[in-house]
Design goal:
three-stranded antiparallel β-sheet, two-stranded antiparallel ribbon, alpha+beta
């Protein structure tokens, strides 16, 4: 083997040894608790043509340092169809879309009983606007 290959091999071994000494927490995103996500339709009823009404989801979702309000909603909706979250705007949840209930209808979100005035992606664990228990 050439000297260059020996040096690369030695460098790789050093990196592997250093990574092996790090605690597992240093390599993983640390869990920061849970937030409660409730998805419900309380304004447009099945009798009026909605595909569903009432509570669709009511669950606690794990959060970590990378979590946002939007990622928590997406996690809670993993067993349902949703459209728009990748653009930080929920357009439809399980067949119930914006404007289905009229020209001014759409999905709204609240955090600790207050309607938010920014996109769900802007509410983060990293900046302290999303915390365990919310």
């Amino acid at each position: 083997m050439s000297k260059r290959i020996h040096k690369i091999f030695a460098l790789l071994l050093v990196i592997i040894m250093i990574l092996g000494m790090l605690p597992e927490k240093a390599l993983a995103t640390e869990k920061r608790g849970q937030v409660r996500v409730i998805v419900e339709n309380t304004t447009y009823w099945k009798d009026d043509g909605a595909p569903w009404d009432g509570k669709l989801v009511d669950m606690w979702v794990d959060i970590d340092n990378e979590s946002t309000m939007m990622s928590a909603v997406v996690d809670a909706l993993k067993n349902y169809e949703q459209e728009g979250a990748e653009y930080n705007y929920i357009a439809s949840i399980n067949g119930l879309a914006q404007f289905d209930g009229g020209g001014t209808s759409g999905w709204m979100g609240s955090l600790n009983d207050w309607f938010v005035d920014q996109g769900f992606g802007a509410i983060t664990v990293a900046d302290g606007t999303l915390e365990a228990g919310d």
